[in-house]
Amino acid sequence: MSSLSLAVRDSSTMLRRNLLHARRYPSATLNLLLTPIMLLLLFVYVFGDAMSAGLGGGRGADRSDYVAYIVPGILLMTVGSTTIGAAVHMAMDMSEGIVARFRTMSIHRGSVLIGHVVGSVLQSVMSVVLVGAVGVAIGFRSVDAGVLEWLAALGLVVLFSLALTWIAVGMGLSSPNAEAAGNSAMPLILLPLISTAFIPAETMPGWIQPIAEYQPFTPAIETLRGLLLGSEIGHNGWLAVTWCAALTVLGYLWSRSLFDRDPK
């Protein structure tokens, strides 16, 4: 078999292994889903009226306007929270010795990482679909999005998930245990809280606006919002793609260097 065929075969085996783990322990994925779902329900039903009054300067906005505004941000926050599982599972494999066992076997070295990454991306997409269903149930509608917009939105979710997953895998490889990996990956949940997921950047205090604007979540959220709602995307589209490409390359190089490092 060629090296490419071996890589595909071994990566498929590792992917099946990770998907089996996710199926056997669904509570781990469900726990990561609770945060975005609870925030969605909290901000819509508890703070919805007050938050919608701030959209457009309070000119006739209602709760449905805020539902349309917040759902795209929550969807990408779901990606961030789901990829924490990749960091935790990678750290567990390292600390439990299974990766050391894989090193002694005649398998493609990169297949272990690829299995974790592809499995996490698939879980992220499924999690986004579930949270999106909750958004639809509480009133979110995407009436201005056509087939191309939906395909572009799906592509953005996959690219963003791929980028964050490689970063999360690097965090897992650099952590001594699963608990430390979960803690180190917490910025993937915290960053959306200071993005434009919940309120426009111009309504934030002046000192926090640069943090909200110059981070990966904000352009990705604005791009997804524009695709689903038909609003202006502007420069956010290429910024989101650039962030995804940069984080993917950085996370891959970081993860690969840690994985190839000789165990102590």
From TrEMBL:
Q: Which residues cross the membrane?
A: 25-46, 66-91, 112-138, 150-173, 185-201, 237-255
Limits of the ABC transmembrane type-2 domain? 27-262
- Which Pfam families does this UniProt record tie to the protein? ABC2_membrane
Q: How does it sit in the membrane?
A: Multi-pass membrane protein
Please report which protein family the annotation says this sequence is part of: Belongs to the ABC-2 integral membrane protein family.
Q: Which PANTHER family match?
A: NODULATION PROTEIN J
Where is this gene product found?
Answer: Cell membrane; Membrane
The family database entries (PROSITE patterns) matched by this protein are listed as: ABC_TM2
- Protein's name in the database: Transport permease protein
Q: Which UniProt keywords apply?
A: Antibiotic resistance, Cell membrane, Membrane, Transmembrane, Transmembrane helix, Transport
Asked if the Swiss-Prot or TrEMBL record annotates the protein with the keyword Membrane, the reply is yes
Q: Which organism is it from?
A: Streptomyces violaceorubidus
Family annotation (InterPro entries): ABC2_TM, ABC2_TM_bact-type, ABC_2_transport, Nod_factor_ABC_transporter
Q: Chief localization class?
A: membrane
